[in-house]
Amino acid sequence: MELTIEVVVFAVFAIITLAGALGVVLARNLFRAALLLLVSLFGVAGLFVLLAAPFLAAVQVLLYMGGIAILIIFGVMLTRGMVQARQVMNSQWDLAAVIALVTFVILMIVIVQVAQGEGAPLPSLPRGDVAADSIAQLGAALVDPAQYVLPFEVASVLLAGALIGAVYIAREDEAE
What we know:
By secondary structure, the protein is mostly helical. The chain has helices spanning about 5-25, 30-50, 55-80, 95-115, 135-145, 150-175.
């Protein structure tokens, strides 16, 4: 395999994604875990850019990473008074390690079989022409009052209510 700039950039984003994901699993602090999840999602956005999918990369950054920023706010507000966990591993770490190892072995077997051409053929998806303005049509549908604007507005009101509730719960604990 030739070492090109694409391979190097892919390796960097893959390492960022996997290191962030591993950090999320091993972090005992909610704030650090959420920050590491941001790192992992950033790596996924970079992989989308490498796949020539800038729309998915933008959605990844705006929606998922923005949602994690809100998660950090909720986590800080709701766990401010919690005591730091002392236990490094939980009581089921051995079972989780065995399941992860079995899953890894199965995935490696499938990857090797597909790479050697021994695996089952992948189903072919029907290919159709995609309209040149399909993203513009999606954007118009998201803000059209007759289509999807109401669910987005309801979701924003629910999130605002949840944020106000989190502030109230956090402040109520301080008063006691």
